[in-house]
């Protein structure tokens, strides 16, 4: 197979994949239809759980490892092979020494792969599911706000007061900055970097250059598995322990990196960065999750508010009362954070790749 064109334009192709994925997200978002890839991932994980869980502690812990590995293999192998096969046959069909056909080849492949990458993250949808809650609260429609909130959080929402609805929504926005977006792109970039290192230093096949999107989906599958089986109730504590631990591990570095860009976004938006840094240092470990407290405490500090999950934690100093517009502000902060994160990390990683390819 001749993959020379792909290696020659590796950085351009992957930059275009990122660009196309963001454009598609901006235009389409995440329509709620039954064939959404993440829904298939979730359904598959639920099915695997029903088939593997035995109720025996030690065996279920082992089967929890099997569950996550099987889910990753079921989805990532087809995605990986599709990239390779599509490039090969599309490349042969339109291959030419002319510049224009090569450009068409690159653009077509990048657009399609951008479409596939897009379904592993969600920026626009984060606003689509949270901004209506703020709108409902502005209209004093608590029941509608509670119903909308129940679709995106695990906690019981039926009795929540206005301030706790606002808090839960902003917490979701802050935590989702990593779960829904930045960690996905981090793994996409790490997949590309690993592929280049193997290809360059070990002189192994060109097929290693296609690891970016599978790595992004490895994170998405892990995170989805955690949301389905990563609980400490009697049903999931054993079968879900591995997914929960791997999700914590995979989010560990991207979360802390994301916080730096949240602070930078806060600075650009003239928010209280000094307070955010103070709250981050004091309260980042006050949540059960080893990662969520970082982004949530930073968000609380930037907005001068206190975020509270009743009976679990309080993050931040209530310098001002929570208001519906804080949801909009939090979402704008995260959008800017995501932009800064992707722009900066992509520039750094692709610069390293450029050096490796010299």
Topology:
Layout: H1 4-8, H2 10-28, H3 37-52, H4 57-94, H5 99-118, H6 124-138, H7 142-150, H8 162-201, H9 212-229, H10 241-268, H11 273-283, H12 292-303, E1 307-309, E2 313-315, H13 325-357
Antiparallel strand pairs: 1-2
Helix pairs in contact: 2-5, 3-4, 3-9, 4-5, 4-9, 6-7, 6-8, 6-13, 7-8, 8-9, 8-10, 8-12, 8-13, 9-10, 10-12, 10-13, 11-12
Distance between the termini: 23 Å
Q: Tell me about the biggest sheet?
A: 2 strands, antiparallel
Q: What is the N-to-C order of secondary-structure elements (H for helix, E for strand)?
A: HHHHHHHHHHHHEEH
How many domains?
1
| SS field, number of helical segments | 13
Low-confidence parts lasting 5 or more residues at pLDDT below 50? none
Strand content: under 5%
What is the strand arrangement across the widest sheet? 1-2
Overall geometry: globular
**If you compute it from the alpha carbons, what radius of gyration comes out, rounded to the nearest whole angstrom?**
22 Å
Helix content: over 70%
Overall SS class: mainly alpha
Give a count of the beta strands, DSSP E runs of length 2 or more. 2
Describe the model.
The structure is a single chain. Helix 8 packs across helix 10 and helix 10 packs parallel to helix 12. The chain has one domain. The protein has 13 helices and two strands, in the order H-H-H-H-H-H-H-H-H-H-H-H-E-E-H. The chain has a two-stranded antiparallel sheet with strand order 1-2. The chain is 74% helix and 2% strand. It has 358 residues and is mainly α. The protein is globular and about 60 Å long.
């Amino acid at each position: 197979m001749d993959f020379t064109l792909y290696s020659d334009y590796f950085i351009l192709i992957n930059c275009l994949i990122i660009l196309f994925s963001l454009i598609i997200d901006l235009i389409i978002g995440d329509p709620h239809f039954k064939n959404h890839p993440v829904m298939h991932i979730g359904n598959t994980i639920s099915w695997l759980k029903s088939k593997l869980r035995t109720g025996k502690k030690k065996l279920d812990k082992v089967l929890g490892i099997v569950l996550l590995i099987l889910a990753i293999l079921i989805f990532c192998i087809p995605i990986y092979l599709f990239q390779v096969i599509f490039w090969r046959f599309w490349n042969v069909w339109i291959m030419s020494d002319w510049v224009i056909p090569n450009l068409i080849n690159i653009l077509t492949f990048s657009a399609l792969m951008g479409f596939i990458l897009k379904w592993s993250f969600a920026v626009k949808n984060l606003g689509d599911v949270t901004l209506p809650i703020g709108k409902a609260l502005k209209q004093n429609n608590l029941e509608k706000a509670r119903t909308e909130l129940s679709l995106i959080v695990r906690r019981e929402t039926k009795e929540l007061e206005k301030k706790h609805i606002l808090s839960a929504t902003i917490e979701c926005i802050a935590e989702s900055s990593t779960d829904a977006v930045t960690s996905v792109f981090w793994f996409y970039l790490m997949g590309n970097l690993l592929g280049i290192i193997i290809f360059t230093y070990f002189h192994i096949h060109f097929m290693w250059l296609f690891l970016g999107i599978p790595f992004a989906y490895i994170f998405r599958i892990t995170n989805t598995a955690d949301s389905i089986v990563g609980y400490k109730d009697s049903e999931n504590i054993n079968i879900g322990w591995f997914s929960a631990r791997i999700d914590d591990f995979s989010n560990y570095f991207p979360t802390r990196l994301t916080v730096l860009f949240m602070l930078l976004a806060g600075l650009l938006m003239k928010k209280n960065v000094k307070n955010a840094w103070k709250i981050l240092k004091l309260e980042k470990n006050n949540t059960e999750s080893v990662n969520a407290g970082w982004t949530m405490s930073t968000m609380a500090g930037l907005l001068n508010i206190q975020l509270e999950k009743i009976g679990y934690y309080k993050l931040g100093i209530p310098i001002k009362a929570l208001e519906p517009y804080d949801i909009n502000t939090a979402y704008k902060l995260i959008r800017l954070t995501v932009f800064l994160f992707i722009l900066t990390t992509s520039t750094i990683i692709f610069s390293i790749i450029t050096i490796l390819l010299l």
